[in-house]
Amino acid sequence: MKLSKRITHLTPGGSDGWDVFYRARAMKSAGQPVIELTIGEHDIPTHPSILDAMHASATGGHTGYAAVPGTQALRQAVANRIQSRTGVPTTPANILITPGGQAALFAAHTAVCDEGDVALYIDPFYATYPGTIRGIGATPQAIPAYPDHGFQPRAVDIAKHAKGAKSLLINTPNNPTGAVYSRATLQEIADTCVEHDLWLISDEVYDTQLWEGDHISPRALPDMAERTLVVGSMSKSHAMTGSRIGWICAPSDIIEHLINLATHTTYGVAGYIQDGAEFALGEGVALEDEVSAPFARRRLITESLLAKQNIVKGSPIQGAMYAMLDIRATGLTGEGFANDLLNTHSIATMPGESFGIAAAGHIRVAMTIDDDTYTSALKTLLDFAALKAA
Question: Which N-terminal residues, if any, form the signal peptide (predicted)?
Fold first, then answer.
């Protein structure tokens, strides 16, 4: 008996660049101190007021089956949030609540791609993108966004692969690069989608972590509302990673089909978690700013330290909680640098190669530890790079 090709081919064989992360975790499990600058996990917990709201909801009885599309109150809160930020009319009929942004990505691709369709995505990419596309039976095709262009994707590169493709997945503010796509970039992407009749899936889970420029949802651009599915989440904006609560915003007819999909897969999200999310959104930007403030500080720390040396180059940290650092002057690959740094200083980073080929020769640093430890670790990293380049 054999398992399905769909499940066994979610990820290709061989190293995907995540070996450094797994090795760092094994070292920690063995009792060795390791400074982790790897994954996008906040160093602060979910705010106590949100947990209190969840607790009150759970003890109040909201522990049974919740409405599969999401509670009406939460769908309304998400719709209000999106409309106020983008200016695009949005109602609960445009919203499906999902078990986190990852489930939303899977559902969005299920909605627009058939078996064998080509689904485009931008490289560098969030780790699960190609596997998500394979998981729904489509064929992933990476479109490189190069460091020389600030990791902004170019229409000319998308157009090379757009003929016959079904969808395009973008992410701004971007993980792993920290790039925020400009209005010009997004308009080029929109024009390309219209020209080649592509669905656009826009991953906007970092929309509250914006340090430079403006966050523009492509759904707000002319002729794009009817062909755009927006993925959102409470994970990054409210430090609710473990709560697994996100959403899709899309035309109402697509949402109706996605509700049918949810009925046959996730069967909704726990009601008390939804009530906690509704409370959190009701706190407005003040709570979001409190959650994002540590990363704004560490961005300034990063830029200050980078300015004091000339070996490691930093891509503009325009958004999100990461710094993408160019270490090619050391003569090492991103994977080689990350492994050596872990071996010699017990500091774990992510090789750029973990996120595709366009960030080869880079490492991604997650700004997710306290300011003092982060400053010390980054100084050590830069000194290590200078030694390697000597």
Answer: none
Residue that is last in its domain, among 243, 260, 283: 283
The residue segments making up the domain with residue 10 are 5-45+286-389
The residue assigned the tokens 């990363």 is 295
Last residue of a domain, one of 248, 283, 318: 283
Residues in contact with 208: Cβ distance below 8 Å, sequence separation at least 6, in sequence order: 236, 237, 285, 288, 289, 291, 292
pTM of the predicted model over 0.90: yes
Separation of alpha carbons 357 and 172, rounded Å: 19
Q: In what order do the strands lie in the sheet with 246-249?
A: 95-98, 246-249, 228-233, 199-203, 167-171, 118-123, 139-144
Cβ atoms within 10 Å, residue 140: 17
The burial class, CB within 10 Å (0-12 / 13-18 / 19+), for 303 is middle
pLDDT digits (tens, 9 = 90+) for 64-111: 999 999 999 999 999 999 999 999 999 999 999 999 999 999 999 999
Judge if 265 and 312 occupy the same domain: no
Residues 371, 345 share a domain: yes
